[in-house]
Write a structure and sequence with these properties.
- There is one protein chain.
- This protein has one domain (3-276): 3-Layer(aba) Sandwich (Aminopeptidase), CATH 3.40.630.190.
- A hairpin with a 4-residue loop joins strand 8 (141-145) and strand 9 (150-154).
- It starts with a helix and ends with a helix.
- Helix content is 41%, strand content 28%.
- The relative contact order is 0.20.
- It has a six-stranded mixed sheet with strand order 11-6-1-2-3-12, with helices on both faces.
- The protein has eight helices and 14 strands.
- It is α+β, with helices and mostly antiparallel strands and 278 residues long.
- It has helices at 3-20, 90-108, 120-129, 163-171, 178-197, 206-213, 223-239, 264-276, and strands spanning 34-42, 52-61, 66-72, 77-80, 84-87, 114-119, 133-137, 141-145, 150-154, 157-161, 217-219, 241-246, 250-254, 257-261.
- Helix 1 runs parallel beside helix 7 (223-239), helix 3 (120-129) crosses helix 4 (163-171) and helix 4 packs antiparallel against helix 5.
């Protein structure tokens, strides 16, 4: 089965399971293990020679009914196998999702074999197809990048964000918190997105969502893991426990280029709290 075909099954199963968990009791499906995979946001529609604009490690623990989500700063200064020290998001540019998986595996000491990657056109299409997402905007957000055709103008309050506005919300980092604020907003947004998808009013839209966005996604998850993740994922979000964290660090400049460096002790602590001990 092709990677895109696998993702079609994954997306369909996830959306279907959101409907199913309203009518099944927690604990119907049992498993005694977990699966780790990366979710990569790509800054190019084609995905060729593209950087990973966002990197998140997700662990779905079936036996404990828990999900852990660890956000990894895109400018993190790490060793990329075969390339040396560089920003972690450049690993995708050099070797695609496979090299990013290997880089993150070496960084965290976890064998990560699987990935799901999506680009901005897919992301915006999804949000528009479900009619937008209600998100709490905590402050005024204004930024114009004419070269990149990115224009962000959001006011504080609960806002129904369109696909384009949602893309701006999760990408915005032109404030004093920079990438750290962006990571927090991404976590806020995706919780809001899951709540939106769980609304019964969106069930009828699922076939359209699937047919329109499946061509923008790639994954190497196999059919068995796709079914397991899908059947339990939405149920865990509603009935189980979800832990969210990010790798802390500080920004430095090396040869005129900004990087994020991390403390190994801090990394081990957040990894333990978010992924290993969920």
């Amino acid at each position: 089965m092709s990677k895109k075909g696998n993702f079609f099954i994954l997306l369909f199963s996830i959306l279907l399971s959101i409907f199913l968990f309203f009518s099944i009791k927690e604990g119907i499906i049992h498993s005694d293990d977990y699966v780790d995979f990366l979710v990569l946001g790509i800054d190019s529609a084609e995905g060729v020679n593209a950087r990973a604009d966002s990197i998140n490690l997700i662990r779905v623990d079936f036996s404990k009914n828990k999900i852990g989500i660890l956000s990894i700063p895109r400018d993190l200064y790490v060793d990329i196998p075969g390339r040396g020290k560089d920003k972690i998001n450049h690993s995708h540019f050099f070797g695609g999702p496979e090299l990013t998986c290997k880089t993150v595996s070496n960084l965290l000491g976890i064998n990560i074999k699987y990935y799901v990657e999506l680009n901005f056109p897919m992301f915006m299409k999804l949000i528009d197809e479900i009619g937008g997402v209600d998100v709490q905007v905590d402050k005024p957000m204004h930024y114009d990048d004419y070269a990149g055709n990115l224009h962000i103008h959001l006011q504080p309050g609960v806002r129904k964000l369109s696909g384009y506005e949602a893309m701006g919300f999760v990408r915005f980092r032109k404030d004093y918190m920079s990438d750290w604020g962006r990571i927090e907003r991404q976590q806020v947004f995706f919780r809001s997105l899951f709540n939106e998808l769980a609304k019964p009013s969106n069930f009828a839209k699922y076939p359209i969502i699937i047919s329109n966005i499946s061509t923008y996604i790639s994954t190497n998850l196999g059919p068995t893991d796709i079914v397991r993740i899908s059947l339990r994922g939405a149920s865990i979000f509603k009935y189980g426990e979800v832990k969210v964290g990010h790798i802390p660090g500080s920004d430095i400049r090396i040869n005129g280029i900004y990087y994020t460096i991390f403390d190994k002790k801090d990394l081990r602590k957040v990894l333990k709290e978010t992924i290993l001990d969920i």
